[in-house]
Amino acid sequence: MQPNEQLPAAAGRVAQTYPDLYRAYAALGEACAKAGPVEGQSLRLVKLALAIGAGSEGGVHSHCRRALAEGVPEEALKQVALLAIPTLGFPRAVAALTWIEDVTEGKPARPAR
């Protein structure tokens, strides 16, 4: 784990307890990101969509924070949630929208289940 890297509490504990495992995991993520032509904001929005599809509240929070730091507009993040309606269903999309709003509206995140 990099000294300045911020991870949620549980993930941070795993990264500190098993640094070789975490480095391998991080390297896999980097290799996957570099495996094709998708990059920048498009890459971040795809990662957000995957987190939404997986139903990962923590992943949605993380990718939203990263996207905002990379200059992705809030409305683009919300559009990804809305695009989930026909594929994943209205309830999943609404849940994702609330998770995005946790970050964009500065609400404290609910503990991930």
UniProtKB/TrEMBL annotation:
GO MF annotations, alphabetized: peroxiredoxin activity
Domain Carboxymuconolactone decarboxylase-like: 19-102
Gene3D superfamilies for the chain: AhpD-like
Pfam families per the UniProt record, alphabetical: CMD (PF02627)
Annotated InterPro entries: AhpD-like, CMD-like
Protein name, as recorded: Carboxymuconolactone decarboxylase family protein
Lineage: Bacteria, Pseudomonadati, Pseudomonadota, Alphaproteobacteria, Acetobacterales
